[in-house]
Structures are given as structure tokens and as C-alpha cells.
């Protein structure tokens, strides 16, 4: 990291491309470089903050690249400032380096899995092992070993084992690079890249020590359960079942024979790189390292019935009813949405049955004796029979509430019932709930609109309207248009890869407790499942309105129930999000607000924003004194005739004047510099009286005569000495003596609002101290009315104005020019009892001669 920062410092001078310039030119070009750099770093900082608050997904590499650009820009600012100021702030480099290294370190972190422990028996697991074996395995160990509820037996293959495997042949880095360059919004490209990644992983060589450990663990299961044991090889990736559920995103392989366990383990590890898993992970703010795969291996329960229980309604935080769903056989079809399920709603307060729905269950998934699973027909008499009786539902509810009490949060629990009607817990994790509990969108059907469908279950509440896009399989996702209503036969985790496009989802089959329903709630997508005939009733390309809260689908767009949904920040809470959140604490806060405070110093900079602010302020102050450099210049100044009794010598830094013939003085019509032109227009206002009548008469002579007069007077007297104007097309610095006082006006007036400013100082006069101070008070009060920030000390004024558009800056400079003329001799005429407010109001009304004066 320090080497990177040193590179930024050393290469700045090569980037500027300035040669053969005077010291004044170099100073101005350095100042312009600083202004441009200031805008750029502020844009980088804004882009970083947008990553945090706009709610769109971003990668760790994206945040790191932006921060590196910001750091490089800050170093440019510090170097420019030191170039402008003659090296006055060397300590600012140390502050920049110290802060930048910490910010980059936070964003450069890569999670590492380097434990030598490859296998953990389930009886040794609890939530204490979460970081090594993932949420599914750690939670199941917690259920078994600390809550005391029955679970299958088995072991976890650690995340370190997967890391060892993936890094052993270098496949991980290759896959990471390929996927990081893939736009997850391009579904076709995502599928192609993900398939390539999975093929590489499935073909990668196995480290010998891991191969040995897996074989020994499989033999242990045979010793315990016999050679006919069949295994469930389940994903338990680190970060699963955390603030992001990863529901259904990774593979589970069921009915695995012990000798096939290594192959199944590879499949589960490779599923980290499936299209839906990559889309979900990137959308939620997890990098490949964050989701290293631990694998849970369990003895299969030959389930008579299986299902899911929610200890609260996921669509409403206030509804504490307990929801139970179940089906005959293995529970895969419950969570993947491939079948309708039996459903029970149980009241928490008295454990009474609130509702029961019995589905037609024509098929079930069962274990094959030789390994694997198959669908078989459900016996006729069981097809319309509930898979649980009321007593069994009550026992399940007691299990679930014991778990909820232990965890202290609503839970999503998978269960199975064996042939002897004994229940086992297969999984327990925090319940993914909808973002807010909202009242139904309407309490009755909307009159005047055709109702196409009614019924089903609200898997994720809300309303949406769009064009119907009917899909048959998850492999048709790349053609879905933005904002479509996805209509499918069944819910499927595969549809997660399209959730960045769709505005709503409707399915014929599926349940609230399925994996896709969980993810839809996370993404805030209105979803209606188990409708029955959506794929037959809704036509491809038809515009419909989905009211998932009330289980209704209307023809056309029903504006009465549509409202803008609050965007869901899917990144919030993820490792990438947290890293940027911590880094921004070192980047974005602005502590150095007031340049007049003692803390406004280089050593007082606590963040990169402080350094940016400090560099900008000190650069303007350095340019404010740019006329001090004129002692080093010879032959640069051109006399300027303005018609005013003031001597102007102009130094053009480039683009400030039209070309002047050798030996000719410049005229006002030669001025290109926008801020100088605006200031002179104000100074030349007809209402401003600079001279007595005789002087005014002579000032109106033609330019040729004036040129002769002017040259004859150089370097003689006048209203003070020479006034130096250092200008370019957008920059002006006037430094001089107008009568008996000193004034400096420094301004940049360009197309970028962030660059623009006016700085003004005024001091002195011919009168006594009391009158000079009163005049300073009048000037300060007037400037405040004009919008300047003003600091007055005795008879001196310092004022500034920043970040106005070009037009407003020129208007303010015009008024400042008028003020310079109006207040020029006021210190000699103002009375001790002068009414400040009267003078200010007269000036603002255009009475620049202040006549008649107020009565004493």
C-alpha cells in the first residue's frame, strides 16, 4: 500500500506537461490543475457515497478502484498546494498517507480460510463454529447440542477445505477474474461465465490430504449406519443464513452413496458459481471469498412427510401466527416450489388452528435403494389426505417455539417425519421477512377493471404492473424485458437471476415457505404463488397489474393501487457494504468547516475530505497573494486604459486579452477575462463617482489621447500606485492601491460551479481609525447582504463567496466593482453617528453617492 501512494507522489510532476513557463505561469497552471483535481476528487467521493446510498449492487473491486482514484487525486492536490505555496505544507503528505492507507486497507481485505481442520463431526458443532462451517451446519449443531432437539447425524467439511481445493490448482483466481469482469445484468453472459467456472471446478485436481479426509469421513458414516446408508450432501456456505439467506442458491445432493460422496461434494462446491448464486451474491454485496463453501453431510431420513415451519408470518412483522407447510415424502418440492403443499396457520396465543388447506398431492419424492431420488405416485387414498394430523402439527409448533425462544428471533425451520412418526429438524435459520408490514392495498376488488385471477398465497406483498413474460424453465431468463411480470408454472430458485429485471412474479404452484419466496421478500418483489392457472390464463405480452397483498391480478394498468415502492438496499449489511461504510468514515466526513478556527491546519485534517477542503482553501489564499510574485517578472505587464482614474497594469496568463500590437496599450474592448470584465463594468457604472468634474471630463477623451496622457504619467502618481491585474480567460487577481486604501480581488469564474469563487480584502484609508473602522463596517454589512461570508477586524475586511454559477459570480463581481467606487472616499465623509443600515440600503437601491446623507 505505501508503495502505491509513493507512486502517486512521484508521478504527479510527469503528468502536468508544463514546460518553458515563467514562475507566474507555472503558479497559475498549478492552480488550474488543483481546481480540476478538486472537482475530480469530489466526484470520486460522491460516486463512493452513491455506491452506499443508491441501493445498486457493487463489487469490492469497484469500491477499491474508486478509492484508489480518490487517493491518487488527493495526493495530486497536496502536491499542487505545496507547489503553489513554496512547500509550506509538507506535513499534509503524511496526513494523506496515514488516512489513505487505512481506507485502502479496509477495502483491500480478502477473507482467508487457512484452518488445518478439514472435518468437524456434527456433535462438536454450535454457532461458535459459524465462521468455519457456515450457517446451516453451525445452526444444526446448535439445535442438536444446545437446544436438545433431534437432528440427523453427520459432519461438516469446512470452508478451509473448499479453499484448499480451489486454490490448489489455481482455479479459484481464474474463476474470480472471469466472473468479476461479467455484468450480472447480462443474463446470457452470466450463464456462460458461470457454466465455464463450474466446469473448471468439477475437473480440478483434489489435494491428497483432502481426498483422504473425505474418504475417511465417508467410511465413518458406513461404520455407524451400515453400507446401505444414504447421505444428504448440503451446502453450508460461510455467510449463508446470515443477513442474506442465500435461500436455494446453492446445491443439495440427496441420496448419495458413501463412495460417491467426493463427487457430490464437488457439485456442492461448484454450485457457488451457478448463475443464480453469482447474481444473488453480487447483488447482495458478497465477494467470492466471502461465500467460501462449507458442506454439511448427513445421514438421509427416509421421510414419510417433510416440510417447513415459520414461527411468524413473513409478510407482516406484527402477525405472530405460526405457518406450517408439508408434503408426502422428501421435502425438496416444498422449498423448490415444484408442488403444492398442505398448509396450516396456528394462533400463537392459544395454539388454536386458524386455517388449514389440504393440497392435491399426486407425486412425492422418495429415496432410491441404489442411491439418488425419484418421483413416485402417491397412493390414491393419500392424495387428498393431510400429511400431518392436528397432534403432529401441535408437536411441530412446540419444537419451533422452543427454537425461537433459544434464538430470540422468528425462524424458518425445515423438518422431516420418519416412518415411525418421529420428527427431526433438518435446518433452522432466521426468517427472511418483508421489509415492512403494510395494510392491504385495497379491501375490495377495483371497479372498472377486469379481474383475471384471484387466490393463491402472498409470498411477498405489494403491487406491480408490467408486461407478462411467461417462462417454462429457468433457462429462458435472458429474454425477460425490464419491468416484466414473470409468470411461471412453479416457483424456482433459478428465477433469482432475473430478479434484477422483473417487477413482480406469479406462479401456478409454490408456497410462501419456498426458497424463491424468501428471496423475493429480500428483494422486495411482489410475488403471488399457488394461483393455479396463471400460465394458462395470462397471455405473453399482456399488460397486467399484480396486487400480491390481496391475491388479485387485473387486466391492464390499475393506477389506483400502484405506488412507488421504497427501494430495497440489498447491499446493506454485507461484507462489501460494511467495508465501504468503514472506509467512508475516513473519507467523507468534513470536520474542517471554518477556516477561521485554530483547528483549520494541516495536522487538523482527520479525513480525506478535510485534506481536500484544506488544500482548496489554502490554494485560494496562495493565489490571493499571487501579485507578490510580480517582483520576479519583467516585461510582462501591459498598460490598460479603462476611462477610470486608476492605473492598471495587466499580466495575461493566457486567454485574458485579445492580442495587443507591440507598443499599444490595451483597452477595455481587448479584455476577454470574464471576471475582470464584470468587475470593471461595476466600477464603470454611471452612478459611481470616482473623480471631480474636471477629472471626469478628461477621462472621457478618446483612447489615443488617453494613451498619450497615460504614458506621460507612468510611473507617476494618480489615485494610488499601479493596480496589477493578473488574468486569464476565467481567472482574475486584482492587487493594488485605490486611493489611500489597499484592495485585492481574486476570482475564478468558469463553467463548473465547484471551481467558482470570489475572495476580497480591503484595508486602510486616509481618515482616523474610528472612521476607517466605520467604513469597514459598512462594507462588511453590504457584502453580507450580497451573500459574502465576511470577517472584519478593525479597518480590514476579508470576504469570500464560493460555488455560485458563472452568471451569479459575474453579477456579484459587478456589484463589488460598484462597492469599491462608492466606498472609496467614504471614510473621509462618514460621521461618527453614521447609520450603517441607511448606507447599506442606499447602496442596494443604487444610490452610490449616498445623497442626501441621513440627518444627524
Automatic annotation (TrEMBL):
It comes from the Bacteria. Its EC number is 2.7.9.2. Keywords: ATP-binding, Kinase, Magnesium, Metal-binding, Nucleotide-binding, Pyruvate, Transferase. Its cofactor is Mg(2+). One of its GO terms (molecular function) is ATP binding. It catalyses: pyruvate + ATP + H2O = phosphoenolpyruvate + AMP + phosphate + 2 H(+). It is an enzyme of class 2 (transferase). Residues 480-550 form the PEP-utilising enzyme mobile domain. InterPro entries: ATP_grasp_subdomain_1, PEP-util_enz_mobile_dom, PEP_synth, Phosphohistidine_dom_sf, PPDK_AMP/ATP-bd. This is Phosphoenolpyruvate synthase. It comes from Desulfovibrio psychrotolerans. The lineage of its organism: Bacteria, Pseudomonadati, Thermodesulfobacteriota, Desulfovibrionia, Desulfovibrionales.
